[in-house]
Design goal:
11 helices; globular
Length: 254
């Protein structure tokens, strides 16, 4: 199973959702890999505690090999995280410089071929993407089986949602007919606030694929980021942790 977490709008919690679902997967015994495709490398730091020059070569090195053509079969280095069953393919700022070169050389299917090779080693693969429909995001959507769309109950997010769903439909038709939209993940939800509930009710009324588990807003997530420790390992009994477990199990049993 390969799951990509994507929304073109920044700040909706893509990396937090991808990393915490991957961590729950690992905690439940699945051999799990997270591939960070965002040049900001937030997931890389979150799961490894490393940043800058400390980060070992990862997906950027793989794409460099692809461009150079020196390796018959480009390889990727996988980093073991401090958490059992959870491995990481790191990202770096170098991805931004590589993007136009990769686009010009039409390397859009290379990620899918790489994940085909990694399937034997991992039962679950999560892909964290940049907040833009660029080369890396399209590569992830072509390579994935499923896509989750984070939504943070903001009116701007709602406006962007319709275009995003249309773009995924078009990409599915042209490149990956097996890609399934698993649903919209409501994130940073405040049930006592009027606007979030109103926006949620409108999405449900329009029969959009909103998942029935809503992720709350909590300072515990910021603490988790600071500790570079996903919630399932930081505080398994916290309310937000339980919501992530519930969401993970809902997706697994769908």
């Amino acid at each position: 199973m390969r799951r990509v977490v994507f929304n073109q709008k920044g700040g909706v919690g893509k990396s937090s959702i991808a990393c915490n679902l991957a961590a729950v997967s690992a905690a439940q015994g699945y051999r799990t890999l997270l591939v960070d495709l965002d040049s900001q490398a937030n997931s890389t730091h979150y799961l490894s505690g490393l940043s800058g020059d400390e980060v070992p070569p990862g997906i950027a090195d793989f794409f460099q090999q692809t461009l150079a053509g020196t390796a018959k079969k480009p390889r990727v280095k996988v980093l073991e995280t401090p958490f059992a069953n959870l491995d990481l393919v790191t990202a770096s700022a170098e991805l931004a410089d590589l993007q136009p070169k990769l686009e010009s050389k039409h390397k859009i299917n290379k990620l899918r071929k790489l994940l085909d090779e990694l399937d034997d080693d991992y039962e679950r693969i999560y892909l964290d993407t940049p907040p833009a429909l660029n080369f890396y995001t399209v590569s992830a959507l072509i390579a994935a089986d499923r896509v989750l769309i984070p939504f943070d109950c903001d009116s701007f997010s709602r406006q962007a949602l319709y275009g995003l769903l249309a773009e995924i439909d078009e990409l599915r038709e042209d490149h990956n007919e097996d890609l399934a939209v698993e649903g919209i993940v409501v994130n940073q939800f405040q049930p006592r606030a009027t606007l979030p509930q109103q926006l949620l009710d409108e999405l449900l009324a329009e029969r959009l694929p909103v998942l029935p588990v809503y992720l709350g807003s909590s300072v515990k997530m910021r603490e988790s980021h600071q500790a570079c420790t996903p919630l399932i390992f930081l505080d398994p009994r916290h309310k937000l942790t339980r919501q992530f477990v519930e969401l993970h199990d809902l997706l697994e049993n769908a």
